[in-house]
Amino acid sequence: MSEKKLEIIAEPGKTSFSTRRVVDAPRSLVFECFTKCEHLKRWIGPRSLTMVSCETDLRVGGRYRQVFQTPNGEVAFSGEFREVTPPSRVVRTFIFEPMPDAEALETLELMEANGQTTITTTTVHKTVENRDGHVNSGVDKGMAEGYTRLDELLASLMQPR
After folding, report:
1. How far apart are CA 67 and CA 73, in angstroms?
2. Cα angle vertex 35, ends 43, 129, to 5°?
3. I need a labelling partner for 107 at 20 to 30 A (CA). Which of 46, 88, 89, 139 fits?
4. What is the pLDDT of residues 79-104, one digit of tens each?
């Protein structure tokens, strides 16, 4: 069993940050959990949020949109897929809709070894200020809780039926 710690790498003065997390599942299944709405609705973000809408057109040029119910109303994230290489890589734009001018480019990379998959995301912002705002928004807590939920989902999907 691997250590279930989310690693966030954010060097001062850079416009990008990366995250890394290991899960006990094959990367083909992890890829599905990152790209199919039926799975995304069950694990993305903290438990205090509910994904009320999910649209994904998983192809280069295709768009995605995820809407969450928060205690203060709805909030949405959206973007366009730039690269889709199953089961190892997805590159997409990332827009927090209340701040459309702060679009970022997000890369998901999945590497499998010994029955585990290392999930690495790299998010590149246009400015250091936008990157710092993203990093300091509580993304660490939301992602950590989301990855705990992903562990639970992966375990349930790998159970014999």
Report:
1. 10
2. 75
3. 46
4. 999 999 999 999 999 999 999 999 99
Residues 66/74, Cβ–Cβ less than 8 Å: no
Gap between the Cα atoms of 42 and 151, Å rounded = 11
Residue (of 89, 145, 150) closest to 122 by Cα position: 89
Dist CA 81 CA 122 (whole Å): 15
Return the axis-axis angle of helices 128-135 and 139-157, rounded to nearest 10°: 60
What is each CA distance from 60 to 29, 79, 106, 158, in whole angstroms? Answer: 21, 11, 14, 29
Both tokens assigned to 31: 């890829």
Contact indicator for 112, 106 with CB cutoff of 8 Å: no
DSSP H/E element including 32: helix 27-35
Q: Residue 90: which of 82, 98, 101 has the closest Cα?
A: 82
- Strand ranges inside 72-140, DSSP E: 73-85, 89-96, 104-113, 116-124
Q: Taking the complete model, does pTM exceed 0.90, yes or no?
A: yes
Summarised one tens digit per residue, pLDDT across range 58-77 is: 999 999 999 999 989 999 99
Closest CA to 16 of 159, 111, 134: 134
